[in-house]
Amino acid sequence: MIDVNDLRKGVTFELDSALYKVLDYEHHKPGRGKATIRVKARNLRTGTILDKSFISGDRVQDVRLDYHNVQYLYNDGSLYHFMDLDTYEQPAIPAEVLGEASGYLKEGLEVKLTFFQNEPLDIDLPTTVDLAVTRADVAVRGDTATGVTKKVTTETGLEVQVPNFVGEGDAIRVDTRTGAYVTRV
């Protein structure tokens, strides 16, 4: 058991026989009484978001997770398939569990896969990924005086705001934590 005061972004815990990963954490101390801890967490099996308030001193069940380095192989529509780099096993994760992370996955990308009792649950993406731009709007003449941006679509279907000089066929580096454009590569 761990105290709810120890919950931070990225921590995984068990509550009512469901596994949750903390997405956002807020500690609120009123003038009197006990502090409250507000947690926004994602259910690792279903992908649903839970907003929960705990009172300081509450405890939740800690879980032991295993991590394996895997390589992303392909998506068959409902499942994302990976290959373990050590054992060559091919675990699969449902698309709804991955959520927004699926927009950063391209074939051959190495990620860290989280397991709980031999069940694949979640992935840890690298900080940045390089993606090819497949669709970009044409820059309008006269929009060059300021830092004007436009929306482009990458090879994975991810939409990113980029500077006007980025065009179709360019490769861009995207930050996986924020979804923001970093640089052209």
Order of helices and strands: EEEEEEEEEHEEEEEEE
Per DSSP E runs of 2 or more residues, the count of β-strands stands at: 16
Rg calculated over all Cα atoms: 20 Å
Give a short account of the largest sheet.
Answer: 6 strands, antiparallel
Please state how the strands of the largest beta sheet are arranged side by side.
1-6-2-3-4-5
The percentage helix is under 10%
- Unreliably modeled segments: none
Average pLDDT number: 87
How many angstroms separate the termini? 46 Å
Instruction: Give the oligomer, counting copies of the same chain as homo and different chains as hetero.
Output: single chain
User: Could you say which overall geometry the principal axes of the C-alpha atoms support?
Assistant: flat
Helix vs. strand class? mainly beta
Give me the number of helical elements. Answer: 1
Question: Strand fraction band?
Answer: over 45%
Protein architecture, described:
The chain contains 1 helix and 16 strands. It is mainly beta and 185 residues long. The chain has a 6-stranded antiparallel sheet with strand order 1-6-2-3-4-5, with no helix packed on it. The longest helix is centred in the middle third of the chain and has 4 residues, at 95-98.
